[in-house]
Design goal:
Layout (H helix, E strand, L loop, with lengths): L1 E9 L5 E8 L4 E9 L2 E8 L16 H9 L7 H10 L5
Antiparallel strand pairs: 1-2, 2-3, 3-4
Length: about 90
C-alpha cells in the first residue's frame, strides 16, 4: 500500500487534519486523519474500487467529500503554509 497526503486543513474544532490517498493493488481509498491529544487518529475512511472512486450516479455528491466539507474550517493550507507547519512541527494540542 502507498499513502499520500493530499492536503492539510484546520477542522472546526481547531485541530489539524489531513486528507490522505491510500492505494493498494485491490483498491483506491481516501481517509481523513486528525491530530487529537498529541496523536493522529483516523476520522473517516472512504473505500473505492481499484482504479477509482466507488460508483455513484451522475451528478451525485461524494459522501466522503460532503463529510470533509462539513469538517473543514476555511480553506486547506497552501503548499508554503503546509511546509512551514511540517518544518516547525505540529502545534501542541
Amino acid at each position: 500500500a502507498t499513502a499520500e497526503a493530499r492536503f492539510t486543513f484546520k477542522a472546526q474544532g481547531g485541530e489539524w487534519c489531513r486528507e490522505l490517498s491510500v492505494t493498494t493493488p485491490a483498491a483506491s481509498n481516501a481517509a481523513i486523519a486528525c491530530r487529537r491529544g498529541g496523536a493522529w487518529r483516523l476520522e473517516l475512511v472512504g473505500a473505492g474500487a481499484a482504479g477509482g472512486e466507488a460508483y455513484r450516479p451522475a451528478g451525485a455528491e461524494s459522501p466522503f467529500r460532503e463529510a470533509v466539507d462539513a469538517l473543514i474550517d476555511g480553506e486547506p493550507l497552501d503548499s508554503g503554509a503546509e511546509g512551514a507547519v511540517l518544518a516547525n512541527g505540529w502545534p501542541s494540542d
